[in-house]
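In response to reviewer comment 3 from the previous cycle, which asked for concrete evidence that the modeling workflow produces usable outputs, we include below a single protein chain processed end to end. The sequence was submitted unchanged, and the resulting structure tokens are shown without manual editing.
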Amino acid sequence: MNKGDSIEKIQKFIGEHEMSWTHSQADEAFLRLYRVDEYPTYFLLDKEGRIVSNTMRPGEEMYKKIEQMLGI
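The workflow returned the following structure tokens.
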């Protein structure tokens, strides 16, 4: 999927890949505000819903940060 894809193409992809989580389509203002430079972009949020990171990828660094946030 690419940010220029039609909503129909995106919905088809979501259905074919059984992606049951919430999806949204962002406009250019959103992409700039949240610094979405590539896909996928992962947002790590704290318990208040504030963005802690949008540059981490699933892996050791992210898991360590989550453990730190949870006090594990």
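The chain has a mean pLDDT of 86. We consider this sufficient to address the reviewer's concern, and the full set will be provided in the supplementary archive.
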